[in-house]
Amino acid sequence: MLGPMLAAALLAGDAPDMRVDAQGLHMARPGEALILAGRIRVASHEWCAAHRAVLTPDAVGDPLVCEREMRRRAYNALPQPHRTHFVRAGGQTALNRP
Q1: Best CA proximity match to 48, nearest among 18, 76, 26
Q2: Which of 25, 26, 30, 68 is 20 to 30 Å from 81 at the Cα level?
Q3: Is the pLDDT of residue 91 over 60?
């Protein structure tokens, strides 16, 4: 089980961290990995709508560049054992769909 929140750390600017609620989700269960993937996709879309110029100033006109980067950061913020379960359960595939 993951902790109450998964945070994708930002290295640039004054924008707040993107936070995704992962409380109670078990990454080894395909349905729950897909739930987290959906939450990360929504959070990255919302975060980038407000802050993408901070993260991807050279691609301000293309929100997908920012969203992909935030999804990548959220995935990398998962602890390694959870990341392995997330991948095996199909979460990464769902996360990377266009």
Answers
A1: 18
A2: 68
A3: yes
